[in-house]
Amino acid sequence: MSSTFTARDIIDRLSTVDPDTPVRLAINPLFPLEHTIGEVIVTTDALGGTVVYVTESGEQLGPVPPAVTVAVGWHEPTEAPRRSRSAVVAQ
Description:
By secondary structure, the protein is of the alpha+beta class. Helix content is 15%, strand content 33%.
């Protein structure tokens, strides 16, 4: 896929899910957070071409699930470290 994500790309991907499914924005690969979507604005760029802006509403919901950050290539898959079950000796 090119670096330009088009309205067709979004429509194609969203056409496979229930229309009542919530949609979120995943922002910031280094500290990924989940945001709600605000407005969708259609305007023109400096060259007169049509551009669509998907904005965030300002509501931050929390961290993006690890499976999402792995799927988009922001993070490597990881597992929680194994913990020792050895007894703690009281002093």
